[in-house]
Records
---
Amino acid sequence: MHEADEPNAIVDFLDIVDFLDTEAQMPWTPDDAERHTRKATTWALKELWAKVANESLERTGDEGRAIREANAVVARQSEAGY
């Protein structure tokens, strides 16, 4: 490897690490909702929680934000009577 290629190799390596880290994150399942909110009282709300959490995680990469967004959506839906 030439010295001029070294920075590109480091960037490529970091891109691979980021990709693997993203791929390694397990998506949440409806069963995970119970650990994060008491408002997911039905299977439909648990499925909604998992869908919102996984989509948010994919979009933002932030697990805490994904959980908060899923909790907020489920809370609104449960208050609306779903």
---
Amino acid sequence: MNQLKCAAEKLSLRTLGLILLPFVAFFTIVANVVLPFLGLFLAIPLFILNGVLLAAPKSKTCQLLLS
């Protein structure tokens, strides 16, 4: 794996997170209007997943390659 692939991997995860962010926000609003208590429990894992995608931790291979 080279540095270009590491950068592309991180960029693709962040792009996916940015694409999903409006959908997650919309789902959260709709779910909380329709089913307030249940909607909160459905929306929290989606926000956590989105946060992980936006943070985009480097794989161990990329960490070794770039250090």
---
Amino acid sequence: MVKVMFPEYVTIGYTKIQLVLMDPIMAKEIGEQQGCYIGSVPYRIYLDRDIINTGGVDAANLVIHEILHHIYSISECDDKTSEEILVNTLANGVAELLYRSELSKWLKQQPNIS
């Protein structure tokens, strides 16, 4: 099986998000986080390089977590969004992520994810 490379960007809906792998020391010791979503144009998601390069469930979870921030933001969800609208919005975004995005093949190749 040919290893799928982690893409430099992902398209969700009408938006393109740059995926930036960052030094783990910067991520953990300065930012105190493993990932960070920047919700203004140009959209960016910063991710701990070691976690992504290691792959697996933790890497997939980190990427999906940050993409969900984007879906929530571009859909203009807030604390007043009804449960049904929020769940539908997130389900549509996750389906697009898993089946049509540039991350689809990478996500499906992660161990313990099928």
